[in-house]
UniProtKB/TrEMBL annotation:
Protein name (record): Aspartic peptidase A1 family, aspartic peptidase domain superfamily, xylanase inhibitor
Keywords: Carbohydrate metabolism, Disulfide bond, Glycosidase, Hydrolase, Polysaccharide degradation, Xylan degradation
GO biological-process terms attached to the record: proteolysis; xylan catabolic process
Signal peptide boundaries: none
Domain Peptidase A1: from-to ranges: 1-365
Cysteine pairs bridged by disulfides in the record: 38-50
Similarity remark: Belongs to the peptidase A1 family.
GO molecular function: aspartic-type endopeptidase activity; hydrolase activity, acting on glycosyl bonds
Tagged with keyword Hydrolase: yes
PROSITE patterns registered for this protein in UniProt: PEPTIDASE_A1 (PS51767)
Pfam hit, one: TAXi_C
Amino acid sequence: MTKYVNSQFIHTNFLIDMEAPFTWYDCDGQWDIYPGSCPFTAVCLSPVSCEEYQCTDVRTSTLDRYSSCPPVTNGSTLPGWGLCSCPVTVVNPITGSCGEALLNNDELWFNGTNGRIAFPDFMGVYPTIACAPSSAFESFPKNVSGVLAMSSSPHALPMNLYGVIQRSFALCLPTSASSPGVLILGSSPYYLDSHSDVDVRSFLSYTPLLNNIQDTFGYYVGVNTIVIRKRSINVPPNATTKISTLVPYTTLRTDIYKQVVGRFSKVTKRLQPTKPVAPFGLCFKIFTNGTRAGLKVPDIDFGLGNGMKWSVSTANSMKRMRQDVWCLAFVDGGVTSEHVIVLGTFQMEDNFLLFDVVNSSLGFSSSLLNKGTSCASFNFTGV
C-alpha cells in the first residue's frame, strides 16, 4: 500500500481488517498549518477539525461498536491552525485494547492493473483515515504499521470506491509469507497467471453476503450444514458465520466442533492419531516429505444458504505442526462463542474471494491449487 503525503509516495504495510470502521496507521510527521506551509522535505499531515461533519459522523457511527472504550473529547487547538483536532476511538485488532487516533485528510494509492499484470502507475482512493502513535502498533506483525478497513462501514475503503473502480474487491491470500498474495479493487477480469486466458471469475460460485449482523461492519455468509464424506452436520438456523482476516484458523462453537472432529476421526481411521498440538484438538502422525503433497484427506464442505458449496480440501484443512505431525486446522471456539463459525485465514489461503459490496454477494473459488494455480501467481513484475 502506498500513501501520498506532501508530494511524496510512502510505502506502508497494512493489516487487512474486515470489521474496522475506518483505516488508521502510524503517522510520523508534522501538521500542515496552512496549505503550502509544509517544507518539501518533510512529511506533513492535514487534520480534520472537530467542527467538521466527518468528525461527528465517524464518532457517531462507531459509538455502539466501541461503547466499552473511554469516550473521546475534542483535541487541543493545533499551533497556528486555530481549530481543535478530532480524536476518535480505535481498537487494536490484535490485543483488543482501546486507543485514540486523530482524523486526517489523507489518501491511499494503489498500483493500477488490467487484471493480468500490475502497473507502476498509481490510482488514488480517499477513505476516512486516522493517525495513531507508533506505540499503537507494537503488538502488530513486523513491519506492519496500519489497519486497512475493508469492511462495509461507510468510512471504509470499499465504500469510497468511485468511477471506473466499482465497489467490489478481490482477496487472494498466499500459502507462504514469502510469496505475495493480492488485493484487487474493482471488478475487472482477474488473471492470476499472466500467460493464461482463464479469468478466475469462471471458477467462482456465489452466495449472498449478510451485512450488519449484530450491528457490526463485518461480512457474513449463511452456512446450513458441514458435510464430511456424505455425512451432514447441521448448523443451527440463523447462526452467524463470519469471515475474518484476523483469526488464523476457522473457529467452531464447541457443539459444532465436537461433531466435526468426531466425524473427521471416523473418515481418517487409516491415519495414526497422536497427541494434539495447541491450538488444535485432533492431530495425526504422518510420514511425508514435509509437504502436503503426499497427504490426502476427505474434503470438508460448507453447505451455504443458497445451496452452494465451499469445499475445504487437504491444503486448507491440514496444518503441519512438526516434521511428522499434522493437525486438523479447526479450533474450538468455546461453548458461548459469539459466532457459531468464524472462517479464518488458513482456510482462505489460495482461495480467490470476490466481495461485491454493491450487490452484497461473495464469489469464492475453493482451493485454486485444484485448478492448477495459486494466489502467488499474480504477475507483479510490472511494478
